[in-house]
Amino acid sequence: KAEDKQMQVQMKISTIAQITDVTDCLLQQLRQWNIGEEKQMDIRLCIMEAVQNALLYGCPQNQNAASVEICWQCTPQGFSFTVTDEGPGVPKSLQHQTWDMISLEEHGRGLLLMQAILDEVTFNETGNSLSGWLRW
After folding, report:
1. How far is 119 from 19, CA to CA, in rounded Å?
2. Could you tell me whether strands 7-13 and 68-75 are parallel, antiparallel, or unpaired per DSSP bridges?
3. What average pLDDT does the structure give for the chain?
4. What is the pTM of this model?
């Protein structure tokens, strides 16, 4: 049955070094579910970018107290994830950038990469929770 193939994971991290734990767990599960290598790398890149941004900008006044929650779910229809931090959120003006709006030397490419790879990228009202969806 399709519902037997669903998997859902929830993790909480507070340091950049822990991103490796997240991606290791993610890749292991995607392989178990027989997701192709190209899709694995796309998903890994998107989650790494979202988590790194959340850690760097989600609690800038006190990096030592940063807390980022990562949830993902894989179903027969696709893969979805949410990354939430405790910060002020991404301003609405930056949530829908285009390549011509940023310099290649500045930050901001991660969100553009996610928007190019994923079918959907959305933010909650506050802007501190990003959700992505990749359909199979």
Report:
1. 23
2. antiparallel
3. 85
4. 0.86
